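__Protein archive entry__

___
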Amino acid sequence: MSTKNGLDALLARDCAPLRGKAIGVVCNQASIASDGRHILDHLLPLHQRGDLKIVAAFGPQHGIWGHTQDNMIEWEGYEDARTGLRFHSLYGACRKPTPQMLEGIEVLVVDIVDVGARYYTFVWTLALCIKACRALGIEVVVLDRVNPINGVTVEGTVLDPAFDSFVGLYPLPTRHGMTAGEIARYVEATQFPGAKVTVVGVEGWDRAAYHDESGLPWAIPSPNMPTVDTAVVYPGMCLLEATNVSEGRGTTRPFEICGAAWLDSWAFCDALNAEGLPGVYFRPFPFQPTFHKHAGAYCGGAFLHVFDRAVFEPVLAGVAVMQAAHRCGGGKFAWNPPPYEYEEVKRPIDILAGNAWLAEAVDDLWPLPRVRERMAAECAGFEATRRAIITKP
């Protein structure tokens, strides 16, 4: 295998940077090496032999084993019978590790799978770990992983700090074209100078490659991210979480399926396909979600067939879906109110977009070329910052 994630690179060095250290491990069920084995299963023999000490493990949203199904379902830490380790929750009463959780830890190892979109909360768990560890002088070692939707393409809006939240703490484009390790470097440089951050980088990765072109095994990073195809559409279709349109939770293809009980599949898809969006076809797709929005109801909807990833614009497609639901919904399309992801005041659409103008673009049915132009200008303004990070040795 020519591509190695950070965990593989660490194992190839026989975990030398961690030997003799007391460590914590931030991970979930997708934190696997190229052999399919979990990071804890690779490190536990070293712990048992005394080559290093695992003080505790920490899990992000959905839990260390991905056991909580939906957004905003918290989980509590526990003593893990199989490993004998204390598992701490970073998605519940605490999202930033406390000094008590970090007690006795010299190095916090973070091995998480990001999916290339600013909303995905795992990188913000990483950012909060860096913040907590800087205050205590603890080193953070990030085991980097490929961006599953490539490390080249950038699209969408750049977060305005006035709209910060747990789905975007610091300015990044929606589809950021960075890895988790690169985001860690960006957070260190711009927010927490002086933090001790070491990135064990990806080796042999073509930045233009998607995860399913890397030769690495795919492990589901969260319950509603089953495939790389899901990750491809997610930067745009996640915006539906801010609306009363189903983003396909409760189906077997979340985010690739969308719709509502008050939509007609064929009229909805005709409106979308009339926009001529590149690389995608919207196929009429009635469906019946088993849970979440419109649970048990017959919904009119669409299935997104992405035929050409190279030209597909997921964020623009998400805006188009919301506009089509607005046009075809007979006045029933609506924005969801807060709370959403620990934000009690700001609207979900505004914190997902990272601004107030994207909702206006949907409400007032801005022409999509106008939306594309404004997003491109924001991304261009961030590119120098991004370039400085991704080219750093």
Notes: Residues 384 and 390 are 10 Å apart (CA to CA). The radius of gyration is 21 Å. Residues 6-223 form a domain with the Rossmann fold fold (CATH 3.40.50.12170).
